[in-house]
Amino acid sequence: MGEGIRRAALLAAMGFALGACGIVPTPFGGHHAATPHPTYKIGAPYTVKGVTYYPQVDYAYDETGMASWYGEAFQGRYTANGEVFDLDEITAAHTTLPLPSIVEVINLQNNRALRIRVNDRGPFARGRIIDLSRRAAELLGFERAGTANVRVRVLKEPSLVAAAAAERGIVDNAGAVNAEVATSRPSPGGRRFFVSSSRYRVQAGPVATERDADRLRDQMIASGYRDAQVVID
Fold it and tell me: Measured in whole angstroms, how far is the alpha carbon of residue 148 from the centre of its chain?
């Protein structure tokens, strides 16, 4: 009898742990993928590793710091607002922004820019301000390096659209650039690369490859457009 009770308790604990990470146990001992249930969430203050975070609406958010990325270990788990993490989607985790929010992330080491959907909490490592999906890190050019110095700013109007959709239980990626294209491995010519600058609203392109875009960006910077960035569409 004691062994039976211990076994039941162990199975219950396993079910709780698996459910918490978005993998749901079946009656036959297997597992099936989590079902997304997206919601709009700000959340109460919370403490991780001795640091207390205060989630809030902040459409003026504009910060510079280190970005990292996360992938396989979290694949298929629920995000903090009830979506399901997919390392090939263009998403991110942030400690305090509303979920979801749309942010522009600029890799300050190569001037690549990307609009990204924030749907999770983190990172909780000192000095890091955002944690990107593997695909987002790949597009911004720092997947291999692991981290990059970035600028992150909230985009108010796309964030409002994403929030309204989440309140209806819908995942709306319209505000995130190339959410439909970049989540799958493109064939040659499947993506278009532009180089843009806010100065005089100049945009050059499209060009076919990332290398061509980087070369064009360098040429524009040399010509005086110092804020030129690679934009993937």
Answer: 14
